[in-house]
Every structure is written in C-alpha cells, then in structure tokens.
Amino acid sequence: MVSITEQTAILAKYLDLNQNGKVLAEYVWIDAEGNTRSKCKTLNKKPSTVDDLPEWNFDGSSTGQAPGHDSDVYLRPVAFYNDPFRKGDNIIVLTECWNNDGTPNKFNHRHECAKLMKAHADEEVWFGLEQEYTLFDQYDQPYAWPKGGFPAPQGPYYCGVGTGKVYARDVIEAHYRACLHAGVEISGINAEVMPSQWEFQVGPCEGINMGDELWIARYLLQRVAEEFGVKISFHPKPLKGDWNGAGCHTNVSTKSMRAPGGMKDIESALSKLAKRHKEHLLLYGADNDMRLTGRHETASMEAFSSGVANRGASVRIPRSVAKEGFGYFEDRRPASNIDPYLVTGIMVETICGSIPDADMFKEYARETSD
Ligand code: ADP
Ligand code: MN
Ligand code: MN
Ligand code: MN
C-alpha cells in the first residue's frame, strides 16, 4: 500500500502530461434526487460559445430518470465554466436533460424557468442566493462533533473563530477558490449558527444565470468535499432538536426596485407574494416544514409576513434598503435543498407576471407525480 502522500505525488506526474490540444469537458446534470452527476468527454478544441459544445447522453435507467426500455436521456449544454480540478483549458459543462421524444426530462425545471426569465428580461431581475449546508463525516456523523455526544449549545459558532468554534475551514476555503476559478459569482462565505454548518452566497446574478451558477457551486462543493472525505448535506433540518435548520435565503430585485423610489415596487411585490404564499411554499424545498417552525430565525408556514430587519418574518427588507428607499428584499422561506430554477422561476412569475407557455406549478407537478 502506498500512503496518501505518495499517491498524490504519483498522480501529479500524470496531471502534468501534455493533453496534445485536447480539452476535457466534464458534463454535469441534475439527477432525480436533486444531486448532481457528471461524466467526461474529450473535445478537439476549447469552445468559444456554448453552441460549440456537442449534445451528449447518458443511461437514464441508472439514475431513475428514464425507463430501461427507453433509457437514453440527452444532455444539452447550456453554460460552461473553467475546471478548477483539471485546470488549463478544461471545462465544466452544465447541461439540461431531455427525453428521447423531445420533451424536457422530468427533473429539468430549467427549461420552463428560462422562458420566464427571457420574457421578463427587460426587468433585469437579479437574485442572490445564500446556500446553507451541513458537513458530515464518512460515518454520517455531524463533522467533528464529539463521538456519541453533542457539542456545546449554539452561540459561539456563527462566524466563529478559534479551535472548537469552527470546523472544516480548509474545505470551505478550497471551495471558495474553486468557485472563483470556475467563474462562479460567489460573493461570500460564513460559518453558520450550528457547528459544522456553513453558508456561501452566490450573486447577484441575473435571470437564469442564478440557477446555473448555484448548481455549479453545489457541484464544486461536492467535488471538493469528496477530496477531504467529507459529506455535504443540503437537508433543511439535518439534526432534530435545538439546532438551526438550513435555508437558501433568496434575495431579489428588479431594475425598478434598485432605482430611487423602488420601495413602492418592493411593497407591491410583497403583496403579490402574500397572495401566493402556499403556492410558493410547495416549491420551496422538501421537508421545509421541519425547518419553518417559527423558531431558529424562521417564520412559521401558516401565514405570510414581512418586516424591516425582521429575521423572524417570511420576507425581510434589509434596514439599509428601508433607509435608502430602494434596493432588494430577502425571501427567507426557501430551504437549503431547493431547486433554484423552481424558486427563481415562481418568483419572477409572481412579481413580474405569468406567461402563457410557462408555468412553474406544472413543472413541479411533473416532478411529484408518480
Ligand atoms: P444576510 O444578511 O441575509 O446573511 P448575505 O450577505 O448572506 O445576507 O447575502 C446577501 C445576498 O444578497 C448576497 O448573495 C448578495 O449577492 C445579494 N444581493 C445584494 N444586493 C442585491 C440585489 N440588489 N438584488 C438581489 N440580490 C442582492
Ligand atoms: Mn447570509
Ligand atoms: Mn445564513
Ligand atoms: Mn439571509
């Protein structure tokens, strides 16, 4: 047996080899469980636009995305990023899944979302997502928690500094750098309230880019964590008891909200959101009822609420926004395990208006039937 240090040294010899002009393209897709999967393809040259990238396919019967007798699912490239693992000209390709009969695959919510984003492109809708997540070790124990016991109660861990107050900073730092290299608009990171829970923020991103970049940031996190032997959970309440859940706060603004006087547009958006509270919650992540209890900095699911600087409301208007009279608002309801295409899609549908050929509910129903 060679040691891990020796293995790393051996692998390094091969990573330095000339690729003879070929480019490795890691095709990423979203599977039936909301995880990412990927496989690699050799290209003869680096693409200049996404249209240069060939369509590909995979065996959907192995991922629960197609029946065995008609198993091909097609991968249509929609965006590509620099590959922080292979580096050089190598790329990571985000794809949409399509069925053999020309319809979007059951879990492809991007397709419908993109139509809404395109229809409302002139409103220049920006999003910023705060992705919270929890680290587990290879035995499925919360990462670095005492064996068979619990760490001290919450308090010192949020943005914590020092031994016993913060865990796995190396994983988080590596992920941050990987996102920057890839070209993901990562805007910050912080340690969360529960020990071994962290957050990264992506945004502001306009329209469909928000979902794309969040999915790639999640993919990069899984890849980095894999190297450290750490597991990532996006479950909204990974541990029962007096431990914070995990959300994906969704910050939103339109062009008019960002301009002086934009507060009236924010208020009008909030009254539209209040009317569709239940519909939104259906798309805001599985098991979110375990998290939205009215405790641990959440609002209960029963009724929509909003308030300036109120972290116990469904929607918070940041203090600085209220002061200036324009800016953005934060929807605190989405869970950490959302599909960002469903959430940004219904957000635009509600605040900017529905369009005849796109319906985020139809999308959601397509996923949850059978
Ligand atoms: P919190 O105080 O809720 O923890 P964070 O700093 O974690 O806030 O996240 C704020 C998010 O808001 C960031 O992702 C940022 O990109 C996003 N954001 C800032 N301005 C806007 C805007 N005008 N429209 C949409 N999102 C915005
Ligand atoms: Mn935050
Ligand atoms: Mn947070
Ligand atoms: Mn927040």
UniProtKB/TrEMBL annotation:
<dbReference type="InterPro" id="IPR014746">
    <property type="entry name" value="Gln_synth/guanido_kin_cat_dom"/>
</dbReference>
<dbReference type="GO" id="GO:0004356">
    <property type="term" value="F:glutamine synthetase activity"/>
</dbReference>
<dbReference type="GO" id="GO:0019676">
    <property type="term" value="P:ammonia assimilation cycle"/>
</dbReference>
<feature type="domain" description="GS catalytic">
    <location>
        <begin position="109"/>
        <end position="370"/>
    </location>
</feature>
<dbReference type="Pfam" id="PF00120">
    <property type="entry name" value="Gln-synt_C"/>
</dbReference>
<dbReference type="Pfam" id="PF03951">
    <property type="entry name" value="Gln-synt_N"/>
</dbReference>
<dbReference type="InterPro" id="IPR050292">
    <property type="entry name" value="Glutamine_Synthetase"/>
</dbReference>
<dbReference type="InterPro" id="IPR008147">
    <property type="entry name" value="Gln_synt_N"/>
</dbReference>
<keyword id="KW-0067">ATP-binding</keyword>
<dbReference type="GO" id="GO:0006542">
    <property type="term" value="P:glutamine biosynthetic process"/>
</dbReference>
<feature type="domain" description="GS beta-grasp">
    <location>
        <begin position="23"/>
        <end position="102"/>
    </location>
</feature>
<protein>
    <recommendedName>
        <fullName>Glutamine synthetase</fullName>
        <ecNumber>6.3.1.2</ecNumber>
    </recommendedName>
</protein>
<dbReference type="InterPro" id="IPR027303">
    <property type="entry name" value="Gln_synth_gly_rich_site"/>
</dbReference>
<comment type="similarity">
    <text>Belongs to the glutamine synthetase family.</text>
</comment>
<dbReference type="GO" id="GO:0005524">
    <property type="term" value="F:ATP binding"/>
</dbReference>
<dbReference type="InterPro" id="IPR036651">
    <property type="entry name" value="Gln_synt_N_sf"/>
</dbReference>
<keyword id="KW-0547">Nucleotide-binding</keyword>
<dbReference type="InterPro" id="IPR008146">
    <property type="entry name" value="Gln_synth_cat_dom"/>
</dbReference>
<comment type="subunit">
    <text>Homooctamer.</text>
</comment>
<keyword id="KW-0436">Ligase</keyword>
<dbReference type="InterPro" id="IPR027302">
    <property type="entry name" value="Gln_synth_N_conserv_site"/>
</dbReference>
<dbReference type="GO" id="GO:0005737">
    <property type="term" value="C:cytoplasm"/>
</dbReference>
<dbReference type="GO" id="GO:0034399">
    <property type="term" value="C:nuclear periphery"/>
</dbReference>
